[in-house]
Write a structure and sequence with these properties.
Blueprint lengths: L1 H24 L7 H4 L2 H8 L3 H28 L48
Helix pairs in contact: 1-4
């Protein structure tokens, strides 16, 4: 289960980085930030139909990203089995340990703390 979580996290990180790169490579309508990061290189690399290739790759990576995120959410949402699962939380069923006096030791009388002083506060009328 841990191997699967680690694998999905790695795939999620790779998808997110590739999505960032693909989105920056796509040609925008105003030729803004895409041109600065090499949108022209994307056209020369993929040919005249670069928009279709980049758009399809973006959609595929987006679906993979969402599937990994959903699977990780389900996996991390499940309650893992712990060592304390078999322990009863009912105090009546728990085994109580009785304190036994030790022979030869005089504990004396129990010390009680004095009562807190009481203060009468004036009541506003």
């Amino acid at each position: 289960m841990i191997f699967m979580k680690v694998l999905l996290i790695v795939v999620l990180v790779l998808c997110s980085l590739l999505l960032i790169g693909l989105i920056l490579l796509q040609k925008s309508k105003s030729e803004g930030l895409g041109l600065a990061f090499g949108a022209g290189a994307g056209e020369s690399l993929f040919g005249a139909r670069a928009g279709n290739v980049l758009s399809r790759a973006t959609v595929v990576l987006g679906v993979v990203f969402m599937a990994c995120a959903l699977a990780l959410g389900v996996m991390f949402g499940q309650k893992d089995k712990t060592l304390m699962d078999g322990v009863s939380s009912d105090p009546l069923q728990a085994s109580a340990v009785q304190a036994q006096p030790i022979e030869g030791i005089d504990l004396g009388t129990p010390v009680t703390e004095p009562a807190a002083p009481t203060v009468e506060l004036p009541v506003a009328e």
